[in-house]
Design a protein that fits this description.
Blueprint: H1 2-14, H2 19-28, H3 34-37, H4 40-44, H5 56-80, H6 88-107, H7 110-113, H8 118-124, H9 137-146, H10 155-158, H11 167-170, H12 190-210, H13 215-224, H14 230-259, H15 274-277, H16 294-298
The chain binds protoporphyrin IX containing FE (HEM).
Protoporphyrin IX containing FE is lined by residues 62-63, 66, 112, 121, 132-134, 136, 139, 176, 179, 251, 254-255, 258-259, 268-272, 274, 277-278.
């Protein structure tokens, strides 16, 4: 105890503060409790349905859970892409965390796919247009942390990008433009234009920051230095597949459950041609292309 008191004294003296004031503060302060620390009341006050359909609450809460998990993913990605190149064992450990979080998203999607009344969903969603999960900025932040912009441009569009295109101008070629293009008018949908107005500047700033530090670039740097290992490559591949194939597939299945498909396809709230747009085969994204063979990419 004496040693602890001495350490406290040293700490506050070093800051030019009187340690006694802080010890008195400690004596007077209330003990922390679970509900304040976790901010439970705030968390539980954030569900605001726009209709009286009971299952809308499930829809809101599950989206909020997803946004929290996306924040966990970003939390790891920010550490992996900032400062010095990570040591390989640290890189691998963090990739395992990323895989765990992303698996949580794909395995829990049955809460959406099987967990709402079809009739409820198809009523309350009418009150949500033009909002769409497409407008999840965290989803885009994750992509920008993982891979360079050119890997987010569809193969068919790559040839259209002029050689001297600025980073900012490249955003108009990214795959997600396909979901926000109104074929009837030839202009951007409200879903996309509102999204860009709100977030495009922060996306461009992030892409600039990530240009040489994104996860793909960092992995390649380790590879060039001969430091990469099979375990690292395997963890990167599993993450790539879980984020860019497994999750998109359960998401697409869910769209089929509620919006039909083929001749019976219902318009989505964001207005995309979703059957093609959401399918990983048509809309193939790969964060770490050098880790996949041509044959694997065709699958
Ligand atoms: C019943 C549940 C759901 C259905 C039917 C559904 C449907 C769709 C559709 C049709 C799109 C295409 C854009 C559009 O036209 O609106 C889309 C995009 C998207 N949704 Fe969902 N969605 C559901 C749940 C979720 C959930 C829980 C999330 C989690 C945040 C989510 C995140 C996204 C994202 C990130 C995109 C953009 C994907 C991309 O750009 O590849 N969705 N969704």
């Amino acid at each position: 105890m004496q040693e602890l008191l001495e350490q406290i004294e040293q700490k506050y003296h070093a800051l030019g503060q009187n340690p006694e004031t802080y010890l008195q503060g400690l004596l007077l302060s209330k003990p922390i409790n679970y509900w304040d620390y976790i901010q439970v009341d705030t968390l539980l006050s954030l569900q605001k349905p726009r209709t009286d359909f009971q299952d809308e609450t499930i829809f809101i809460i599950y989206h909020q859970i997803t946004e929290l998990v996306l924040k966990l993913i970003r939390h790891e990605l920010e550490q992996l892409t900032t400062g010095m190149l990570p040591e390989v064992p640290v890189f691998i450990e963090k990739m395992h965390r990323l895989v765990r979080y992303t698996r949580l998203l794909s395995t829990s999607f049955s809460i959406m796919n099987q967990g709402m009344r079809y009739e409820d969903y198809n009523q309350f969603r009418l009150a949500l247009a033009p909002a769409s999960g497409f407008q999840s900025a965290q989803f885009r932040y994750i992509e920008l942390h993982c891979t360079p912009l050119e890997n987010l441009i569809p193969v068919a569009k790559k040839a259209l990008v002029p050689a001297d295109t600025t980073l900012e101008a490249m955003f108009q070629y990214l795959y997600w433009q396909d979901a926000g293009y109104d074929r009837a008018t030839g202009s951007k949908t409200l879903t996309l234009s509102q999204f860009e107005e709100r977030y495009l500047d922060s996306f461009v700033a992030m892409a600039q920051k990530m240009e040489t530090n994104n996860l793909c670039a960092r992995y390649m740097a380790l590879e060039r230095q001969g430091l990469s290992t099979d375990d690292l490559r395997s963890a990167l591949r599993i993450f790539d597949h879980t984020f860019n194939v497994a999750w998109p597939l359960v998401h697409l299945q869910t769209a089929h459950t509620y919006l039909g498909g083929g001749q019976h396809e219902k318009a989505a709230t964001g207005g995309s041609h979703w059957e093609k747009y959401l399918h990983p085969k048509y809309q193939q994204r790969i964060f770490f292309p050098s880790l996949w063979s041509d044959e694997e990419r065709r699958m």
